[in-house]
Amino acid sequence: MSTAAAVGVAEIAVSQEPAAEKAPPAVPRRILSKTGVEITMLDQRAIRGPSLDNVLRFSDSQGVRAFDTAKAYGSEPNFKKWFAQMPEVRKEVFLVTKDELKSASQMVASVDERLAACGTDHIDLFFIHGLGDHHTVDEAVNLLKGKEFREAADAIRKSGKARFVGFSTHHKDRGTIIRAAAEAGVVDAIMLQYTPWLDKESTLNKALDAAHARGIGLISMKQIAGRMFRDPARGDILEEVKRKFPTLAEKKLSPFQGLLHAIWTDERISSVCMSMRNTEQIRENVEAARRYEPLKAAEIDQLRDAVLAQGPTLCADCDGRCSVAGGTGAELGNLTRFLTYHEHLGDRAEARRRYAAGTPRCRRRPATGRAQISPPPAPPAPTGSTSPGSCPRPTGSSAEDRDLRGAPDRSRGALRQVDLT
């Protein structure tokens, strides 16, 4: 056979080979402050349900490299399974996990438990979960400034079992807690309930300035929560937001993508932790990250007005003022958060667990003579439920979404992408 003929045969053979799948464009990254580590601007929070395995893999396939889990979610074994099946993945992802701890003395043992549960020899970022939820503000501040916390954090980092240490918080006084962390200078990162339209003079905003100046990495969570869409009495919330904020259409962004752009406009925020529950949401958010452009202050104000006009159930910048206005000691911010879990995410068991775990102060009624505010009654089971802890079966628009979700996704009808972080 001539050389030319041989080359021709080779070309035919190559052409018959299946084309290699083209890797998707990378999700942009930001440096997690003093850690020096670049993490993707999107952080996939581990959702509950049988669809999680597919969600993790699909999110990874789309370029997301930061993943969030916690002991309380019951999702750490899913990561263990993933890492066992695909060992190369562990080297590529930034793994965050958390545990609800009362004291610093529990940290070292908890890290060992998290390693075993996740099936890995190290965690990238270990958080005390929900600092303030099981502490008074003074207890949380004293913990962060205490010798025991510093020694435990140093020991964990030195052991290599967790590269970085911090905490998550959605407490109404998280500004005070975060400022204490900045003053103590021990933590590497903080995950916080956040909104892109913080009052610049608020305690929380000033605390974020202090934390950022101290080199503490900041990750946003619980950006927004809300009512059910397409409620005839309220109209289509998405369409209303688009109408009141026409810049979205000009930029060809969905309301959720606009919200992400508003958050990323705050350069203090390294990543956004999102409960992306299906292919549609993952694609939408990944596209937002790839197309990110900072918003002007006026545009953020317009987006804020459009969103708040729809009466979201949960205020991401809750500072407890609603309880004061209502004349009650009940923690309305936490109660509405639990209600959001129950109503909009379908995480009924978790909502009940957190409500039951709350202190009597959390549910306290106002003093005699004030309007009585009772704990919210448990809403009726959603249509299609087969038991108190179940949800309707999914009715996704595509086979891919149905297969990926596996479990029901009530978020299609709600201001979704709310986090239980």
CATH-scheme architecture of the largest domain: Alpha-Beta Barrel
- Under CATH, the homologous superfamily of the largest domain reads NADP-dependent oxidoreductase domain
The overall strand count is: 10
Spans of at least 5 consecutive residues with low confidence: 1-19, 226-234, 366-421
Instruction: Calculate Rg over CA atoms.
Output: 23 Å
State the strand order across the main sheet: 3-4-5-6-7-8-9-10
Helix/strand order: HEEEHEHHEHEHHEHEHEHHHEHHHHHH
Q: What number of domains? A: 2
| Main pleated-sheet profile | 8 strands, parallel, barrel
Helical fraction: 40-55%
Average pLDDT figure: 79
Quickly count the helices. Answer: 18
CATH class of the largest domain: Alpha Beta
Structural class by helix and strand composition: alpha/beta
CA-based shape: globular
N- to C-terminal distance: 66 Å
